[in-house]
Amino acid sequence: MSTTLHASGKRLGRPSVVAAAASQKHHLLYIWDRHSGRCFLVDTGAEVSVLPPSSTDTRSSKNGPLLTAANGSNIRTYGVHTIPLNFNSWRFKWIFTIADVSQPLLSADFL
């Protein structure tokens, strides 16, 4: 049995949390940051939050903490940055490791 939720009124801006389906069986949770315009993948299995590097980061010889992917491979890192976040008017400053990843990721410790 399914239920339907009805809401009235005007939607205020872009929603801060969006679920996106990668396939029929697997759903991913994203959260949108109003400050930077980035969409972060929420990964409850990750130990640290990560951001993809900028061109300035990749030119730097600075190394960050050692990271290992779920498949056992090493992930190149470029240091850490404290980034301001704004999720639907909830403001935070959060520490991110800058790493060779394809998209921003929020780890379980954020939740």
Automatic annotation (TrEMBL):
Signal peptide: none annotated. One of its GO terms (biological process) is proteolysis. One of its GO terms (molecular function) is aspartic-type endopeptidase activity. Coiled coil: none annotated. InterPro entries: Aspartic_peptidase_AS (IPR001969), Peptidase_aspartic_dom_sf (IPR021109). This is Peptidase A2 domain-containing protein. It comes from Petrolisthes cinctipes (Flat porcelain crab).
